[in-house]
Design a protein that fits this description.
44% of the residues lie in helices and 15% in strands. By secondary structure, it is of the alpha/beta class. It has 2 domains: 191 residues, Glycogen Phosphorylase B (Rossmann fold); 175 residues, Rossmann fold (3-Layer(aba) Sandwich).
Length: 389
């Protein structure tokens, strides 16, 4: 199969683009031909690239900012799609959706829509421009009507697709995944903690992820004083960057436990397995809102594959992801988060046992290889003629 995958964000600099790149790599392992087209950031990011393409990765093509280059982008997509069997679109942003819909319709190509977030809900938090929020809501509501098949990352998105009227037999569940060879319990060295000036003898609580407008890393900063009051030999490590980073650093400075909280900013993705491997307890904290209810959090998949005990907020698919191998706590509550961390801090045997079960759960449900299998099933659905009711 020849697949054109299209993403409206920057493969090199936006961490969430790992989904489309990882799936493309898995499709290649199955013998399929893949091309990726993405939209690099308009302004040069302050941070270095988070990932570089590996030898043998799919060829990468880039669009230009839509406002001035809609014709160029259409012509690019049309050229790339001319010999493909299916166009795979992740996310509904107009920058990619418009040229994909235009070129795909004229070429008569099947369209697969990978719906991985509630973009409407997220935009209400992070987007200041009213027109942009309205436009995104319209595109997200309409995209399933143009798709021949669909993958959904969470139960909330599945329910929304069904309400819109998308045929259930053309949908497949494709939660977030992890590279189970890279993220592995074999990574146990504490050397990276020493490299950053942390104490490897202390209990290390880790948070990884983008620090963007919809993130809730502040809950872990607020939980730190209670944890350290009971377990003084604890330190907190935040790995990731984004627009929230400066505010979180200021909150850390004002915390009574500021000397036990470390923020690294953006880190090259190649180092993430050893970072997770150095942690004793991993946190995935969220508020309860429409955006988080629709999430399939990447951090949880990578924690699971690394065989780590996880404390996660009980919202959306997070509870299902850690079912039987983690502690689910009330969302939006730093106190509940602290109590979950303390339960693990006081029980090393439970941490070890839940870590072993976490690895097995990852292998069963949350690898990119499993995701590619579901994606191929969805592509197969797209090739079947619709049956009128």
């Amino acid at each position: 199969m020849n697949v054109l995958m299209v993403h409206p964000h920057d493969i090199h600099h936006d961490p969430w683009t790992i989904r489309i790149l990882a799936l493309a790599r898995e499709l290649q392992k199955h013998g399929h031909t893949v091309k990726i087209c993405h939209l690099p950031r308009r302004d040069k990011p302050k941070h270095a690239p988070l990932r570089l393409l590996r030898k043998g990765d799919p060829p990468l093509f880039f669009m230009k900012p839509r406002q001035k280059n809609v014709i160029y982008n259409y012509q690019l997509i049309r050229r790339l799609a001319s010999d493909c069997d299916i166009i795979h679109l992740q996310k509904c942003f107009a920058a990619a959706a418009l040229p994909v819909l235009w070129a795909g319709r004229l070429l008569g190509k099947r369209l697969h829509y990978d719906w991985d977030d509630d973009e409407t809900a997220i935009s209400k938090i992070v987007e200041k421009r009213r027109f942009s929020r309205w436009q995104l809501a319209v595109y997200e509501r309409m995209m399933p009507h143009f798709a021949d098949s669909l993958t959904y990352s969470s139960r909330a998105i599945r329910e929304r697709a069904l309400r819109i009227g998308f045929p259930e037999d053309r949908m497949r569940h494709l939660p977030v995944g992890a590279d189970a060879e890279r993220f592995s319990p074999d990574h146990r060295s504490k050397d990276i903690l020493r490299e950053w000036g942390l104490d490897p003898t202390k209990l290390t609580v880790l948070y990884i992820g983008q620090l963007e407008g919809a993130a809730s890393a502040h809950l872990l900063i607020q939980a730190a004083p209670e944890v350290i009051r009971v377990q003084p030999n604890t330190q907190f490590l935040f790995v990731g960057g984004g627009e929230q980073e400066d505010a979180l650093r200021k909150e850390t400075e004002n915390s009574s436990t500021s000397d036990a909280i470390f923020l690294t900013g953006y880190v090259d993705s190649s180092r993430m397995p050893e970072i997770v491997g150095a942690a004793d307890i991993c946190a995935a904290c969220f508020e309860d809102n429409a955006g988080t209810r629709a999430k399939s959090p990447l951090k949880i998949a990578e924690y699971l594959a690394s065989g780590k005990p996880i404390v996660a907020s009980r919202v959306g698919d997070a509870s299902w992801m850690i079912d039987g191998c983690g502690i689910a706590v009330e969302p939006g509550s730093s106190q509940a988060l602290a109590q979950g961390i303390l339960a693990y801090a006081a029980d090393p045997d439970r941490r070890h046992l839940d870590g072993e079960k976490a690895r097995q759960r990852a292998l069963q449900h949350f690898t990119w290889g499993k995701g590619a299998e579901r994606l191929l099933e969805a592509y197969s659905c797209a090739s079947k003629p619709l049956v009128s009711s």
